[in-house]
Write a structure and sequence with these properties.
304 residues; alpha+beta; Structural Genomics Hypothetical 15.5 Kd Protein In mrcA-pckA Intergenic Region, Chain A; Pseudouridine synthase; 3-stranded antiparallel β-sheet; EC 5.4.99.-; PsdUridine_synth_RluC/D
Length: 304
């Protein structure tokens, strides 16, 4: 239930042109690609309410596109964040009046939701900085999976959030991850394979021909006998992107319960390695570097 005291932000207008290669696809699916900073459910609501227009007119989420149409979205977000503050420790790497950069631990969910009503990063942020209740989503502009650790930036003002979301949409935010994968890879490369929801398992994503563009660049950092440490750089930011791409390449991330399958111990593994693999209860994925432009000064920021 929404809080009657919640006030909307002043609406902003976003515009885009439907690419020619989107011909034959649904309006809602293409809109989600054009504006990835918003959830599909929110975009669908805006289509139905007339806040998302196609060639200046209302359309239906299922309408088929030709390519070349103009899209206009009137963005209106509530300022009020409804989660409760909770005293959860946070590792802060940097902060000023506009942004907060944290090192998220593995095991911490970012947003409250079904199955995780509290105990999340949002709850922790609201305890540390109660003023974030007046910023949509408590200032969160991007996510990390529950069991992925690493660097995240949080906006402390609506102005900063708007600027960071625009950078993410324009792919001007650079993110590098460290991953340990199964198998001894001999070289790096690029995974360029579209991703969308798995056709049968709604908890998973999958490589699909009709999915959203997804590009992951990876290079070798260190090779082991049966595993490889990789540096992964995201060109896009799809849900579970690195995990899906590595599994697609038959080198799933170590400890990934969703895409890695049952634990397979390498032949000749030492007792120490066997113990480490059996007791490792998260995927071996860490967001180690985040680069963006400061939302007010415009200066480059690089956090590790």
């Amino acid at each position: 239930m929404s809080d009657p005291s919640a006030e909307p932000l002043e609406p902003s207008i976003r515009q885009a042109i439907v690419p020619d290669n989107a011909a034959g696809r649904r309006f809602d699916a293409v809109l989600a690609e054009l504006f990835p900073e918003f959830s599909r459910s929110r975009l669908s609501e805006w289509i139905k309410s007339g806040d998302a227009l196609l060639d200046g007119a209302m359309a239906r989420p299922r309408d088929t596109l030709r390519g070349g149409e103009s899209v206009q979205v009137q963005v209106v977000l509530e300022t009020q964040t409804h989660a409760a503050p909770q005293d959860i420790p946070l590792s802060v790497l940097y902060e000023d009046e506009q942004v907060l950069v944290i090192d998220k631990p593995a095991g911490l969910v970012v947003h409250p939701g079904a199955g995780n009503p509290d105990g999340t990063l949002v709850n922790a942020l609201l305890f540390r900085d109660p003023a974030l209740a007046s910023v949509p989503r408590a200032g969160v502009v991007h996510r990390l999976d529950k069991d992925t650790s690493g660097v995240m930036v949080v906006a402390r003002t609506v102005q900063a959030q708007t600027a960071l979301v625009e950078q993410l949409s324009a792919r001007d935010v650079h993110r590098q991850y460290l991953a340990v994968v199964v198998g001894a890879l001999v070289s790096g490369g690029t995974a360029n394979a579209p991703i969308d929801r798995h056709p049968r398992d709604r908890l998973k994503m999958a490589v699909r021909d009709d999915g959203r563009d997804a590009v992951t660049h990876y290079r070798l950092r260190e090779r082991f006998r049966a595993h490889t440490a990789l540096e992964c750089r995201l060109e896009t930011g799809r849900t579970h992107q690195i995990r899906v791409h590595m599994a697609h390449l038959k080198s799933p991330i170590v400890g990934d319960p969703l895409y890695g399958g049952a634990l397979k111990l390498p032949k000749g593994a030492t007792d120490e390695l066997v113990h480490e693999l059996r007791t490792f209860k998260r995927q071996a994925l860490h967001a180690e570097t985040l680069e963006f432009l400061h939302p007010v000064s415009g200066e480059p920021v690089r956090m590790t």
